[in-house]
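Customer escalation, tier 2.

The customer says the design service returned an amino acid string that "doesn't look like it belongs to this structure." They asked us to rerun it and document both sides in this ticket. The original structure tokens are below, unchanged.
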């Protein structure tokens, strides 16, 4: 497992099907590559720990996007934990 610190720099909606949304988040740095899964962790202002599973990783015009079901706001500091997907 690999760990790294980063900041969310952009989010965009990927899809909305039957009331369920999937989002893509870009980070200022990442160690995720296509085929990886893992989590992004942040701490809310309340002090609560937020854990956001990374479902997949895609690239678009050279930018790496992390696919999630619940996005974090741009500017949020995160700790990424990569689990390499083995198929």
């Amino acid at each position: 497992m690999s760990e790294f610190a980063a900041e969310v720099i952009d989010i965009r909606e990927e899809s909305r099907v039957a009331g369920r949304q999937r989002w893509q988040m870009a980070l200022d740095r990442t160690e995720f590559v296509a085929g990886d899964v893992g989590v992004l962790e942040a701490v809310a202002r309340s002090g609560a720990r937020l854990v956001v599973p990374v479902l997949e990783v895609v690239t678009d015009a050279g930018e790496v996007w992390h696919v999630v079901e619940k996005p974090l706001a741009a500017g949020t500091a995160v700790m990424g934990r990569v689990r390499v997907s083995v198929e």
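Tier 2 assessment: The sequence is consistent with the input. The first strand starts at residue 2 and ends at 17. DSSP finds no helices and seven strands in the chain. Sent an explanation to the customer and offered a walkthrough call.
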